Structures are given as C-alpha cells and as structure tokens.
Amino acid sequence: MKQETKLVTAEELKEQRFFIQKVRAVTHVYDHIPLAHVHSYGCQQNVSDGEKIKGMLAEMGYGFTDDAENADLVLFNTCAVRENAEDRVFGNIGALKHYKKRRPDMIIAVCGCMVQQEHIAQRMKKTFPFVDIIFGTHVLHKFPEILYSVLSTEKRVVEIPDSAGVIAEGLPVRRDSKFKASVPIMYGCNNFCTYCIVPYVRGRERSRSAEEVISEVKGLIEQGYKDILLLGQNVNSYGKGTDVDFAELLRRLDCFEGEYKISFMTSHPKDCTHELIDTIADSKHISWHLHLPVQSGSDRILKLMNRCYNREKYLELVNYAKARIPDLMLTTDIIVGFPGETYEDFCDTLSLMKEVGYDSAYTFIYSRREGTKAAEMEDPVSDEEKGKWFRELLEVQGECGENAYKKYVGRKMRILCEGRGRSRDGYYTGKSRQNIIVDFNGTEDMIGKFVDVEITEALNWALIGKLI
After folding, report:
1. In which residue ranges of the chain is pLDDT below 50?
2. Which among 273, 193, 215 is positioned nearest to 240, based on CA atoms?
C-alpha cells in the first residue's frame, strides 16, 4: 500500500463538479425526478460518508426514497468490521437481482469498507454481475465521474485503488437531521489491532486541518445545529505532528456562543491523556461522555490484540476521569472469545467491568476478519462456549448500568429533545450532556430544542423524567 496521504486538489474537485452537471443533464430528460435509495451500514463514519453521497446525488438531480424496489439508483455503503454485517449486505444485494430484471435501467452501486477488501471485491465481481458500480473508500469524491461513466456507456465500473487514503474538502452534504451533525476530523488508523480490518480498508491516519474543522463546526452552530459529533477511527490521534492536537481542537470548538453540545468518538486508551480529560472537565459545551474501548480485562489478551496499554494503565485513566468529571458517562467496547482467550482471561474482563461500573458497553463475540493477524491465530474455544461467556457478560453489564443510572433520580437535567420516545406512549426522547437517553412527557415542538427534565426513574439503559 502506498504510504503518502493525498489532499484532493481544487482542480480535481472542479472536475467532479463538471461531471455533476453532466449527470444532471442526463437525468433532466427523464419524465420524472430520478429517485435514489442510499443505505449506509455500520459506523457513524459510514453514515457521514453516506450523507456526502446523498449530497452529490442531490446536486446531480436525484430525489430520495426509502423504497429500494422503485428506486432508479440503489447504493449500499458497506461495513467490514463484522462478518454478520457483510452477510447482511450480500443478502440484500442478492434481493436486488429481481428488481433489476424487472427494471433493467436501475443502477445498482456498492461502495465502502467491505468492497475495499480484495477477496470481497473479487466475489462481488463474479457473483453479482448485475451490480453496475463497485468503488472503494478512497474514491468517494469521484462518485459523479463514476456514475456518469455508467450512464453514458452502460458499462460496469469497478474502482478500488490501493491507497493510504485521501482527504477531500468541500464535498456537498445532505444531512439526515436539522439539528444533529457529524463532522469527520480525521480518517484512517495506524494502530493495527490484530482483530481489526480498519487500517486495511480506511488507510492510514490523516487529519483534516484545524481551520477546516473549526470553520465547518462554526457554520453548523450558526445554522442552528445543536449536537455536533466529531468523528475519527481514533480521535485522540488527531493532529499528530502539528501544533493543534485533539485537546486543543476541542478547546477552540468550545468557545462559540450559543447552546450546543460537542461529542466525539472513538477514543483509543493508549492516546487518551490527562490533558484531554481536563479539557472536557473544564469545558462549557463538550459532552461529559468518554467512550473508551477496553476490549479485554486480561493483560495477556490485550497484548495479543496489540492494544498497547495494560489493565493498570487503563484503570488509572478511568479513575482520573471519574475524579475530574464526577458526572462522567463512561462506555466501552468488549470482545468476547478472542483467539486463545481462556475462561480465566474472560473472568479478568468480568472483574474489570465490575470495578469500573460502566454506564453502558457495546459487547461482541469475536468475528474473524480475513487479512488480520488474529485470523491466523488458533481459536480452540467453541462458539457455544463463547455464547455462554457472552450471556454472563451481558448480565453483569445490566447490573452495572442500572446502578450507574440510579444516582440521577431526583436530579434536574438539560436534555436535547430528539424525537418520539420508545419506552412509553406519548413520551419524547433526548440525551443529556452525558449522552444518556432520557424519555419524558414532551411535545412535538420541542424536537431540536434543549429542555429541563426532572429524573423520576432509572432503567438499565435509560432514564425516565418529567418536563419542568
């Protein structure tokens, strides 16, 4: 893989704007507004990429539909982190074959992390000949050119270059919300955890300039956005080698006027610093939420995972964060059944979970990823046994979550209302500064606004309250 990160030039972006107009000229002769169905699988970074794809499609004259069967263009933006995500994509692509047979002019596109893997790309080309466009993560900005090529030649386009990755500024964005926005601040990863495919499909770490990020966030706040989520495979690595690291970037984003909330994901423990925790503690707008994936409580397994920290270092960070931010919401990721893990190793994870007392945890049974080092390790523990461990972990985390949320009962919290709730009929839902889900007796006109709520009940995954 080439190591040089490329900044897409203004001239290259101008060329893509030319292709946007070319596609628009083609779609203009339709007897209807062409409709696109865009579905993004996986992480928030994929969702953000999907918003850029929809932004380009909108400028090319497309409307949007949730109905894939009647769309003129169907695009799946894929995820490669877990095997079941790939299986779901393959199943959904297969279902499109019948639509394509009935409507030969339908364009089917598949992009994203999944197809950036060579073995998946080859399978796509051989097994799904009715897919018109296959493109990888490093050419998203060239989508207008790719689409125009298919429209004008009716020939399949496959574009999956081997690259360390690019940064393309100024792409159009069609956001899914009018008050919540995701802002990528960096792309790629240099960590090479042995179970993870991300560095191979997203490329090497590369940070957007602080000026670009600050300008985008400032503009969103001025437009009325209230919840800004900063994205990166490892946001703590932002700006390495420059005079603006992640803590400094947060300080600069914290100084704008108005009521808004800044969140971020995901943090790697090896790069999390006291300075970053102090910045969160001393801020006005930064969420009191730290997602700090531990993956395992066993030092032996952490070493096999190439996580570059140990249990002691992790707990030191957690204890410092809890001391500096008493109302901190702490969440994590945990993998159960990593190759070579024993029940004793798993028990170390259980004891860590009890010691930390996470508010919430995203837990997964290990998923083998071809091309990673862990895929070559011996894995003698049966799926049935891993399932037993997994259920034991969920039971412990359920108790931790319920205990963590009880402390908020009787307190007043400032909530950004996001829409209708699911816990009770007639209730609305939102999130606190800690990113805790809170359901309350709100009204439709509160969506997108901050309101005060008194907490009356704690569940093991959310809070219930009444409007003040």
Report:
1. 1-2
2. 273
Spell out the long-range contacts of 115-122 with Cβ–Cβ below 8 A and sequence spacing 24 or more.
Answer: 115/78, 115/160, 116/80, 116/160, 116/200, 116/201, 116/202, 117/80, 117/197, 117/200, 117/201, 117/370, 117/371, 119/370, 119/371, 120/80, 120/86, 121/158, 121/160
The pTM of the full predicted model, rounded to 2 decimals, is 0.94
pLDDT digits (tens, 9 = 90+) for 303-326: 999 999 999 999 999 999 999 999
Q: CA 245, 248, 249, 250 torsion: positive or negative?
A: positive
Q: 151: helix, coil or strand?
A: helix
Residue 109 pairs in a beta bridge with 75, 133
The domains located in the chain, with CATH, are 6-166 (3.40.50.12160), 173-406 (3.80.30.20), 412-467 (2.40.50)
**pLDDT value at position 1?**
46
Residue 382 neighbours by CB under 8 Å, 6+ apart = none
For tokens 């263009």, name the residue: 73
- Residues counted in the chain: 468
Nearest CA-CA partner of 426 in 437, 439, 444, 441: 441
- Provide the 8-state DSSP code for 386: H
**Which residues lie below 8 Å from residue 386, measured CB to CB, with a gap of 6+?**
336, 337, 365, 366
Residue 226 to residue 452: CA distance in whole angstroms: 15
